Amino acid sequence: MEKRKKVDKPGFKHFKPAFTENKDLVFGTRAIIEAIRAGKEVDKLLIQKGLTNELTTELINEATQAGVPIQKVPVEKLNKLTRKNHQGAVCYLSVIRYAPVAEVVSACFEKGVDPFLVILDRITDVRNFGAVARTADCAGVHALVIPDKGSAQIGSDAMKTSAGALNFLSVCREHNLKDTIRYLKDSGLKIIACTEKGEQNLYELDLKGPVAIIMGSEEDGISPEYLRLADFKGKIPMVGNIESLNISVAAGVAMYEVVRQKGL
């Protein structure tokens, strides 16, 4: 029997997906400067390595004054983000406005409620972040606390994954998480590290009252410097063959243990 030749469908043999711009992206030095001056919340600014012109210096100064995280990257990185004339500068806009952690804590105490915060250390996956935010809003968390570097981009994808929870949940972007944790301790919050290194089960800890739970990445866990600052370390008991949970699931377990203990 003669072997039939494979016939390509017309129009699909050399098909290449179209390049699509990220709608959270702003490029061009002057455009980014004006976005910052207009009060837009910038999630992250990427600047081409080696650029030293006057306009780039002005942009860096504006971003620094506004507290925008700046990252120097190769031009190839910027070219992958946009094919248009980016002039060596690209930024991601955030879909939310960040809240200072001190204001969140003060507002809670002024209302007579115990602050309930979740600190996310090195959670870079947007889908995981969005899922954590969704559960946090349902569990009555007052704010998520993240570092200004090494965290998921909070753009339209994060908003979608959170099912809109980021419209209602405060997010605090802090430059130094170590200082932030110390501030929370000084403000009367118990710092609970949810970690497999804990000697007690999470369910055995007293999670009532003002509390902040630290969650680390699935790959690296919680940074040692933050573990040392924790008042208590609690682990989620594992009885199966898999020894780890997805971060969004683990965070959900921890948050709802707080809900259970508060009797909400």
TrEMBL record:
Alphabetical keyword list: Methyltransferase, Transferase
One Pfam short name: SpoU_sub_bind
RNA 2-O ribose methyltransferase substrate binding domain residues: 25-99
InterPro entries registered for this protein in UniProt: Alpha/beta_knot_MTases (IPR029028), Ribosomal_eL30-like_sf (IPR029064), rRNA_MeTrfase_TrmH (IPR004441), SpoU_MeTrfase (IPR001537), SpoU_subst-bd (IPR013123), tRNA_m1G_MTases_N (IPR029026)
Superkingdom of this protein's organism: Bacteria
SMART domains: SpoU_sub_bind
Name the record gives this protein: 23S rRNA (Guanosine(2251)-2'-O)-methyltransferase RlmB
Native source organism of the sequence: Shiella aurantiaca
Encoding gene (name): rlmB
